[in-house]
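Lay summary. Proteins are chains of building blocks that fold into shapes, and those shapes determine what they do. In this project we predict the shape from the chain. Here is one chain we studied, written as its sequence of building blocks.
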Amino acid sequence: MTEAILLVGGKGTRLRPLTVNTPKPMVPAAGVPFLTHQLARARAAGVEHIVLATSYLAEVFEPHFGDGSDLGLSIEYVTEEEPLGTGGAIRNVASRLHSGPDEPVLIFNGDILTGLDIRALVDTHASSGADVSLHLTRVEDPRAFGLVPTDETGRVKAFLEKPQTPEEIVTDQINAGAYVFRRSVIDTIPTGRPVSVERETFPELLASGAHLQGMVDSTYWLDLGTPQAFVRGSADLVLGRAPSPAVPGRCGDRLVLPSARVAPDAKLTGGTVVGADAVIGEGARIAGSTILAGAVVEPGAVITDSLVGAGARIGARSVLTGAVIGDGAQVGPDNELRDGIRIWCDTTLPPNAVRFSSDQ
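And here is the predicted shape, written in a compact code that computers can read:
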């Protein structure tokens, strides 16, 4: 196993305003771009060559990662001129692969944080003789996901998209977004048009009699598709709940990058990250949150389960709970923002403009 494809072309619409200036895989999680964690885990599992399938803000990736040598990898970049979907993106980079027809190629979605045993998935693929192997995980409420029932040997029986009624929910196993393809299978995906592996490639392979194998691995798994999930994923990386060799420091309640300045009496807990050159004022209390590079949190602010964008400023005594503040936004003193509120990039919120009464 020496190569993989990472699908990093999505626009990250659900993550806005985090993704207005930054592609989703490059938004910092636990102090480094989220993609860094995926690349480091792939390398730790033995992957040597990775092709990044890029599209949205594609020009951002290569200046940061270069040829991959700093991570012990060889990285190539392929940009989609028009969005091609998951299957189309895989097919679009096929010419950059080095594997022979029967060799395995790992494929990862760029927005999944997981503790998947990558080596075990590849071993399952080899021992079962599958054409495609899928990482499956179990969830309590599978209605928002595609169900993947398997037989007693793990062989996939069907793909069921987002069931709603109790009768449709025949399993709690879902597609977790990591695959091993036999190299020759990639060449069967149509070219030049959008293709979804979930809705087209996998069902058609199954209908044609191909062997699709599922491996249930119910270690840590989180879809980082929403700001709230992204903030939680970053905190879990810092706390050590989600594994990554790329966290730039020891696991614990807080991660403060070296050039940040934190007042001695400020309290940082719950996996909080303070980015490069950020400033945290006196008496601030920050829990389970991400403060990106160059942001300023003024004295007495209270921030919980929130993300403050690069260069943003949070005024004195303001309270944020479950909020997302875009890059460069200015939140004046004595505001209270909560319940998933998003403040767009470069917005200015005057002092005391938003408040919630205690009985709301």
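What the prediction tells us: The CA atoms of residues 11 and 246 lie 24 Å apart.
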